[in-house]
Amino acid sequence: MYLSRILPALALAMYAAASPAKSSTSQPRALVYRGQSACKGCSEAVARLLEKSPQKFAVTYVGRDEEDQISAELLSQAAVYAQPGGP
Fold first, then answer.
1. Could you say which residues form the signal peptide (predicted)?
2. Number of domains in the chain
């Protein structure tokens, strides 16, 4: 069950890594949703996978209770957006 929630986000991350948007530090940026619709611990697991991937994503958590909120501007600066969770 746990993997069925993580794998779609990981697949999206690997697909997006093919043409990542680069930040000023040349490290691709990943936005990971952390909030009520994400399963417990899933956001952190996806973030760790992205950080340890060959692309070494710089992860920023986004969501209602996070410092950063999802916006068109923020999404345009990211190579990956992952929203872990599901039924």
1. 1-18
2. 1
